C-alpha cells in the first residue's frame, strides 16, 4: 500500500466541503485522509495537533479570516505545508495576490471535478496549479510586504488574539473564549503591539484589515 496523503479542507460551507471530499476521494490515485474545518480557529487547532499535512485547501473567506490573513498565517507558521486557495473570488488580482502571498496554487470554485482533481494531484506531486487568467495586479507594495511579514511573525495564539481584538472583544472576553487568564491575554496583546509596531487596539485591527484592501470582494 502506497503513501497516504493527509489533506486538510478549510471552508465554512459544509455542502462545498462535502462535494470537495467526494471529488478528492473519487479522483485519488493514492490513499487520502481528509479532515474538514470551518473556521480559522479550527484550522489552527488542526495544525497544532499535527504538522505533517501534505496539503491545505484554503477558502479565503472563513470566520476569523481577513482577506489573505489566513494564507499569510499558514505560510508564516507552517512554511513546509503547501497551501492551495479555493475560492469563488476568481478575479486575476485575487489569484495573483494568492501567488504573491505564497500559495502553491489557486482553484476557482467554478472548476470542474476533473480540474480540481488534477490540480490537487499536481500539488501533491510537488508542482503548482494556477488558472490561466488575464490581467495582473502588479507586485506587492512595500506596505503589503511589510504587513504580511508582521502578521507572519505572530504565533498562532497571538494571531487568534489579534482577530478577536479586530472583532472588538475586550481582554476579559478574549480570556474567556480562549480559557486563559486575563493577564495572559494582556501579555499577548503587548507582544502583538510590539511585532506590529502599533500602540493601540484600533491600530492593530487596522493592520489586520489591510489584508482585505487588495481583495476585491467578500464573497466566499
Please give a structural write-up.
The chain is of the alpha/beta class. Helices cover 51% and strands 11% of the residues. It has a 5-stranded parallel sheet with strand order 2-1-3-4-5, sandwiched between helices. Helix 1 crosses helix 5 and helix 6 packs across helix 10.
Task: Write a concise synopsis of the structure shown.
With 220 residues, the protein is an alpha/beta fold. Helix content is 51%, strand content 11%. Helix 6 packs across helix 10 (201-213) and helix 8 (171-178) packs across helix 9.
Distance between the termini: 37 Å
Give the overall shape, derived from the CA principal axes.
Answer: globular
Structure classification: alpha/beta
Our estimate of the beta-strand percent is: 5-15%
Contiguous runs where pLDDT drops below 50 for at least 5 residues: 215-220
Strand order of the largest sheet: 2-1-3-4-5
Helix count equals: 10
**Can you count the beta strands?**
5
Helix residue percentage: 40-55%
Radius of gyration equals: 18 Å
Write the layout of secondary structure elements.
Elements: E1 5-10, H1 14-27, E2 32-37, H2 40-49, E3 55-58, H3 69-77, E4 83-87, H4 92-100, E5 105-108, H5 113-124, H6 142-152, H7 156-166, H8 171-178, H9 182-196, H10 201-213
Parallel strand pairs: 1-2, 1-3, 3-4, 4-5
Helix pairs in contact: 1-5, 3-6, 6-10, 7-9, 7-10, 8-9
